[in-house]
Design a protein that fits this description.
With 115 residues, the chain is mainly α. The chain is 60% helix and 0% strand.
């Protein structure tokens, strides 16, 4: 069993080790984007089954939202690896952006405003 506190960096390394065992290696960015879109569609379908108005068909295999989110994460890591993107760095930059740009965008629990 893997460490619960595994970092994005170590997860990207694990995904790379998995991909490197195959002759094909990483697919092209366009193919990866198609696969990511497919996985996001499957996630949307599961969300719709569990929280929307469209129940599963009787003969459909059970899947979970967590499973589909895991697939989206896996494919995202594949794409990041193939494009030499460090997801930890990308995440940190995004959090800096959101913490600055959107600091007062929504009503805050602490009552602070941008006045």
């Amino acid at each position: 069993m893997k460490d619960e506190n595994q970092s994005l960096h170590s997860m990207q390394e694990e995904v790379d080790t998995y991909i490197q065992q195959f002759k094909t290696g990483y697919f092209s960015p366009l193919s990866q984007m198609a696969r990511l879109t497919e996985e996001v569609g499957e996630l949307a379908r599961e969300i719709n089954h569990y929280y929307g108005e469209k129940p599963k068909k009787i003969d459909e295999k059970p899947k979970t939202v967590a499973e589909e989110l895991g697939d989206v994460l896996f494919v995202t890591m594949i794409m990041a690896n193939s494009l030499d993107i460090d997801l930890t760095e990308a995440f940190q930059k995004n959090m800096e952006k959101f913490n600055q740009r959107d600091k007062y965008r929504f009503e805050r629990k602490d009552g602070q405003t941008n006045d």
